[in-house]
Amino acid sequence: MALTLKGAGELIPNQGVLIQTIGLQEAKLSSEIENIVTTNDELYRAFADQGQRTTSHTKEVLYYQDALRHGFNAMRSGNRPLTTNLFVELYQIIKRTSAGVRKVPGIKLANLLGETIYTPPEGESLLRDKLTNLERFIYAVDDLDPLVKLAVMHYQFEAIHPFTDGNGRTGRILNILYLVERGLLDIPVLYLSRFIIENKREYYSGLLQVTKAETWEPWILYMLDAIEQTAKVTRDRILAIRDQMTATAEWLKAKAPKLYSKDLIEILYSQPYCKISFVERAGLSTRQTASNNLKKLVDLGLLTSVKKGKELYFINQGFLELLIT
Questions:
Q1: What's 184-203 look like in SS3?
Q2: pTM given for the model
């Protein structure tokens, strides 16, 4: 299960590579579940540009990534538990809002035909009481397997629906943070959203059947299957990135030893869209030399280049394909 991912982050020297690049794919797919859609090209260009000059949907995906990183840092550096205060912080980052737990009534969840299928509880005081109950459940000393507890926790959060928007994305971040906190993940990388998109009908049906008839077993089995399959796919992807980085380094040493440096390889695998300024800021060379060297890598076929407006991007296509397939 998720244990197959534990330690996988150590296979790549710079764990930031995984948190940023694989995390971005999770952010993209998690947002897509809520019909916030962007392209991989738009997303990785926007990431390279630090969110400048991009669409509102792409910015929301980047906000999700910011929220995931915030939650991970809060747990690791600040030793923060999974509580209502942290839930609110994640939501505020995702939606770029100062709002907190929902105060307004009238929230209804509908199916594709517009028919109401679920009405969440209302009233800030009641919602906070239910969130406090969720906190107690998360940290209760019991015999529940952590993965079973995650399935129940995810249902509870979605059923409480504490915010006016962004509940699904916030809840999926909490899944990852919970696995990190329980020691089943070292770093916050898990492609749960891809599985949910590919099995979307079963996801919503499972949630609804728990609400209607307290039918827990199919829902828990769905989530266990999601974690098991996702952990394997994510680990395979991490191994593939490691192998490609190694092969690229060896290839460049043989083809153009004067261009090779370990730091350059790490820059090219920190994100698939590289800019001249990345190499310059890393202190590897002057701007002109960085430009010349990246263009030589294009000539060698390692990178492709594309110009958007005044900005020139050097794309590590092999790395990009590993991330999006």
A1: CCCCCCCCHHHHHHHCHHHH
A2: 0.90
